[in-house]
Design goal:
With 232 residues, the chain is α/β, with parallel strands linked by helices. It is 44% helix and 16% strand. Helix 3 packs parallel to helix 4 and helix 4 runs parallel beside helix 6. The longest helix has 17 residues. One of its GO terms (cellular component) is cytosol. Its EC number is 4.1.1.23. GO terms for molecular function: orotidine-5'-phosphate decarboxylase activity.
């Protein structure tokens, strides 16, 4: 698996917050307990992309979870623009045409992650969306396509991580959302693991949102998650 020197880099804190001011307060409260932050739609559309640039200038790592999916030229140019923000990761949906365009557009050290199947989906959701394959088979198919195209890593449920690792090999990243400490609620996630289980399954980075953002002491929760992963 890819080498990650700083154990704190394994935890990506999801800044799924209403505005930049709230995100700034959380980053300040976390201090040196966290080094890596995810910015998705909610914050991204509320000034979060400029905030991502500021975090990068502060030597923080950022993960732009934008899940791009459009015609090839639009994806390629969008990824090219995102490369200038100083981000570490950017997500695209794992459709072959989209992934090929993203690989063409990446630059400045940006790593492209392909989202196989959303962790809020189970087999019934996939069937409702028109997919003939169950979730596990759909994830494996998309992971293989991502490897062949040259994507840097995969976003999948921790429950599929070992199967994905067999497909993509040891040199690609695996990033998993839907991570919940043992005493945390599931929220709207259906396919989850604890941080220790995720690390034992060979996950490189875990994404954790509400258990940290909603905690009375987010710094303590972040440190606990990192320690749990290191002890796995």
């Amino acid at each position: 698996m890819p080498d990650i020197a700083d154990p704190r880099d394994r935890l990506i804190v999801a800044l799924d917050l209403p505005d930049v001011a709230a995100a700034e307060r959380l980053v300040e409260r976390l201090g040196d307990a966290a080094t890596f932050y995810k910015i998705g739609y909610r914050l991204g559309y509320a000034g979060g992309l400029a905030f991502a640039e500021r975090l990068a200038r502060q030597d923080k790592k950022t993960f732009l979870d934008l899940k791009l999916h459009d015609i090839g030229n639009t994806v390629e140019e969008g990824v090219r623009s995102a490369s200038n923000l100083g981000a570490t990761f950017l997500t695209v949906h794992a459709y072959p045409q989209t992934m090929r365009a993203a690989v063409k557009g990446r630059g400045n050290g940006l790593k492209i992650l392909a989202v196989t199947v959303l962790t809020s989906y189970d087999d019934a959701d996939a069937a409702e969306a028109g997919y003939a394959l169950p979730v596990t088979e759909l994830v494996a198919q998309r992971a293989e396509q991502a490897r062949e195209i040259g994507i840097d890593g995969i976003v999948c449920s921790a429950l599929e991580a070992q199967a994905v690792r067999r497909v993509v090999g040891s040199d690609r990243l695996i990033v998993t959302p839907g991570i919940r400490p043992a005493d945390a609620g599931l929220g709207d996630q259906k396919r989850v693991m604890t941080p220790a289980q995720a690390r034992a399954a060979g996950i490189d980075h875990v994404v954790v949102g509400r258990p940290i953002t909603g905690a009375e002491d987010p710094r303590a929760v972040a440190r606990t998650i990192i320690a749990e992963m290191e002890g796995a």
